[in-house]
Glutamyl-tRNA(Gln) amidotransferase subunit B, mitochondrial
Amino acid sequence: MNYSIRWKCLVSCFSRKLSTVHKPQSENIVEYLNKSEWRSVVGLEVHVQIASLSKLFSGAKFDFTSPVNGCVSLFDSAIPGTLPVLNQKCVEAAVLTALALNCKINHVSRFHRKHYFYSDLPAGYQITQYDQPIAKLGQIKFNVFTPGIHKTAYEKVCNLTQVQLEQDSGKTIHDDFENRSLVDLNRAGVALMELVFDPDLSNGEEAAALVKELILILQCIGTSSCKMEDYYSQRVHSEWTPTCPSPPAPPLSWAPGPKSRTLVRFAVLPTRSTMRSYARLKRCNVARL
């Protein structure tokens, strides 16, 4: 009996402590989340196909109107003994793009292997760049104006982390009727430029305006056509996170974005209701503690 009485007293004391300490703490945090100004932070990664007649590391000609597996060399299909030969025009296009975006050109650049185990990547890895890309530390200026949302246009500046070269992968076609998957290697090895932007954007309108300005620049200097009909010559991926002035922001959440600037404004950002949902989720986590 003594042990049971002690146990009941201990449980009652612990429950009173939780009610007096943890409950007000969670309520204060929820109240702070409701009163604070949540905002979005958006970063973009843009992949553009370089306007080149041949691929990045092979002499195979590339045309998006070619028949299936009609533009594949021995290196593209990862035949043992074949070696890569860097396409000079692709390097020149990347340097020209970096200069147009006010980047600092690296005098020494190197490539890395990023391993993927996909059926449309015969070598089992992608040749790309990481710590020593073609260029770094660029900047792009653009005007933001959306009819019905903004009364006047305003200028926005977004910093560019780096410009790098990399290979594209092939294309996998899933046939549900025959229960099989087909591989087209025409796109495997095609030269891509990856432009990594800093998370300096705050809404979908700014993201769409940045992509539109980038397309105009690349088409003007002739380094990429940026046309969707040219076998996915441009792809936009977005990183989004809700953040608050005081508490630390959660990690950036990846969202494979649309391949057209028309849909960037709607796909890159959640709505204000999503912000409130995140606040409610934060409240539930605090309440469980």
Q: What stands out?
A: The radius of gyration is 25 Å.
